[in-house]
Amino acid sequence: MAFEKILILDDELIIRESLEAQLSHRGYSVSLAKTIAQAERLMARDQFDLMFIDMRLPDGHGTDLLERIVDLPNSPMSVIITGHGSIESAVKCIQLGAFDYVVKPCSMDQINVILKKAEAYSQLVKVNQYFSNQIQKNSEILGGSLGIGHLRRLIKKVAATEATVLVTGENGTGKELVARELFRLSPRAKQPYIRVNCAAISENLIESEFFGHEKGAFTGASQRREGRFELANNGTILLDEIGEIHPSLQVKLLRVLQEQEFERVGGNKSIRVNVRVIATTNRDLQKAVEKGDFREDLYYRLNVFPISVPPLRQRKEDIDLLAKTFLHSFSRKHGVKIPGFSASAMERLLDHNWPGNVRELENTVERSVILTENGDFVKEEALGLLPQKNFIDSPKPKMTPIIISGGSSLEKPPAHIEESLLNPIDHGPSFLSLEELEKEHIFRALDKTKGKKTQAAAILHISTRTLRNKLKLYRMEGATSV
Question: What CATH architecture applies to the domain 146-308?
């Protein structure tokens, strides 16, 4: 990321003016100081990217200033420039935090090398700061189905190009994995990879997240901040869930895609970047264009090379491999040894339609690992998957009590009703009401967990608090208690 503002601190007029002329000619904004006090006043008013500091100054030593600024937030990178160089002096300056050390007289070629190294280092530091809070998962795309084979071929074909890619698919299909694989196989694989979740950033902040902001641009902008496009310079940016961005930002995003330049919020200087764009969405952007929710010109800029990720229900032959891979991973994570799935559990996994796709499968396997005893196979009931068929009502029989943790009892349906929940058959023309269906399913889960509410809530995909509230309601409706 290119530097913008440079401060030169030197008491020799010819040095100050020579450096200023050379740096200004290269597009930098340059400020000059001949004393430490003057430099500190400039730094209090403005934010600099880089400082050239002379060692011997009228009001002190350059290392005095270096010691004071090195630990300040957003302090500029410092280069010592002196006519009285020595190895001991150079070592001390580097230990105090200086980026480099130059002995006068120095050529502009030397300065250019320092600038190039400093800019590259600055970007590396800021990208690492960004990634420090990011969790990087395994980017391997698993599966041997025809759909996954076709997907891999498309990724390999387009990854080597500079084309913008639009990855589409339902939630949980692995669109972000596809984006990371595109980056990993690209010529930019050793450059930054920056992700922006467009759906997770508020409308008021997303422009600043994309393009950065200047100091004082809005309330709370106490320092200049680089945006994600600057962090991604020479690399790749992932615009995750691009269909969620506000129409007012779509115009500015279109300009970046067309011209590779933008201004920070509150700024007026155009910043040029070289960024490859990958976008993902679970929305039908063509329909969004027809409704006026998404700009047509932006859609065509993004849709240079479309890739569609198939849902899990269309590649069920991959479920076995995915489930076993997740089982191994979560067994290690939770410190247990689960050898595999029972035959009925695997049959249930293969039979499920997976509306939440691979993410739902991953969550289901992790939950089943937690509920399975160490050393046991995962059983069907540990999966907690609801039957995907209609439930038919039958004459309501006498209910029997079930003991739950906490010392109370609730009535549960008898065995033939429980069986009908798993294998529904025609008992007549009417269906169970939703309330009765929910109640009977909760009782069945409690029975399976021997009254343990926490485990029952996990199986039912609800919180323990929600389960307690429902049990309290059932007691108020007349269930027995002890």
Answer: 3-Layer(aba) Sandwich (3.40)
| Tokens (6 digits) for 411 | 């009535």
User: Tens digit of pLDDT for each residue in 216-260?
Assistant: 888 877 778 888 999 899 999 999 999 998 888 899 999 999 999
Amino acid symbol at 189: A
Return the CATH class of domain 313-383. Answer: mainly alpha
The CATH number of 5-121, from 3.30.559.10, 3.40.30.10, 3.40.50.2300, 3.30.70.100, is 3.40.50.2300
Q: Which residues, listed in sequence order, are joined to residue 9 by a DSSP beta bridge?
A: 33, 53
Q: Which residues belong to CATH 1.10.8.60 in the chain?
A: 313-383
268 and 128 in contact (C-beta within 8 Å)?
A: no
Token code pair at residue 247 = 């129409």
Beta bridge partners of 363: none
Every domain of the chain with CATH number 3.40.50.2300 lies at: 5-121
Alpha-carbon distance of 475 to 381, in angstroms, equals: 26
Q: What is the pLDDT of residues 65-124, one digit of tens each?
A: 888 887 676 778 889 888 777 778 888 888 888 888 888 878 888 888 888 888 888 777
Which residue from 390, 310, 312, 375 is spatially nearest to 349, judged by alpha carbons? 312
Amino acid at 126: K
Question: What class has domain 400-476?
Answer: mainly alpha
8 A C-beta contact, residue 431 and residue 392: yes
